[in-house]
Specification:
16 helices, 4-stranded parallel beta sheet, 356 residues, alpha/beta, 8-stranded mixed beta sheet, binds nicotinamide-adenine-dinucleotide
Length: 356
Amino acid sequence: MAALSAGGAEVALCAANPLTTQDDVAAALAKDGLPVLARRGEDVDTYARHVAALARWEPQVTLDDGADLLVLMHEIGGDALGGLAGGAEETTTGLLRLRRLEAEGRLACPVMAVNESRTERTFNDRYGTGQSALDGILRATNLLLAGHTLVLLGYGVTGRGIAQRARGAGAAVIVCEVDPLRALEARMDGFDVMPALDAAAIGDLFVTVTGSRGVLRREHFERMKDGAVLANAGHFDVEIDLDALRELAGGEPREVLPLVERYEIDGRRLNLLAHGRVVNLAAGEGHPAAAMDMSFANLALAVTHLCEHRGELEARVLDVPKEIDEEIARLKLESLGVEIDSLTPEQQDYLSSWDH
Ligand SMILES: NC(=O)c1ccc[n+]([C@@H]2O[C@H](COP(=O)([O-])OP(=O)(O)OC[C@H]3O[C@@H](n4cnc5c(N)ncnc54)[C@H](O)[C@@H]3O)[C@@H](O)[C@H]2O)c1
């Protein structure tokens, strides 16, 4: 926000997820004079009011986890939509919705798929979420990963990072997937792969990160061991079926630690973290700054691209240009004090010709 303001933009902010706002950060931004509509733990209605207030402000560019705002602006239509240069979208879930809008022929502005740039996917999701999801779980529980079995549901770009980091900390990792290619990849990466129903009886700690809903549900809870811990690192709190947990436990859970709720089911205790909300943000501090810097650079450069090419870009979900990715990686390497080679003219010639 500071960089965009310094670049001349008027910037306003609302939360993208009711439980993930850090009040101290929101307060610091407000103190700097930026309009901030976000409070930790705000209820769904307040969140919706905040998004609606930003829509009425009629922004020309939306960014970060902006899909709720962008979708609302499409629903409102009229002037709100006409003034849009575009959106720079940071989340898998957001892009999924915006692509559906595009498929229905209703997307009215270009959207840069920041979430899919190489610097974002490889570094933010794999290393940022990989570390911060475990950090959130450990802060909430102080579990020892070594010697325990972590069941990871969803071996996507994000899940892969969590699996790798958990293995590095000594956990035995089981992967559950629905995509045969991803499942095969997990197997060849050295993880056990099996259906969730089988893993349910073995796991000590379960982490969902699929972007889907009801990934852990009644049939799984019925098989879980006493003391099992359940966490979600996916965007929405729908991956763990909370209604089924309540039904099986015959009521509301008991809070045994901050952000740890215990459901007693037939004498077994199942511990849900952060109400099933995205655990690295709700129980931790989110990604480390050293992973977020590349995301922010992606967003700032995507916004610049949208503004510089206003009126020239198609109203579609677009890739971030390769040059932006390369520039960010080059700057990051420089900041780490790492130098690399470049192709010699002979190599460039060799690689670009066919007649050798
Ligand atoms: N916590 C964070 O900071 C953070 C960061 C990045 C992404 N995310 C969120 O994590 C989720 C996943 O994102 P991604 O980028 O890794 O997506 P992805 O599409 O790369 O991976 C998701 C994987 O889950 C698998 N899957 C779907 N349904 C499943 C099921 N029922 N059981 C087992 N596996 C299933 C898919 O086959 C896929 O391989 C999204 O909601 C995204 O918004 C969170």
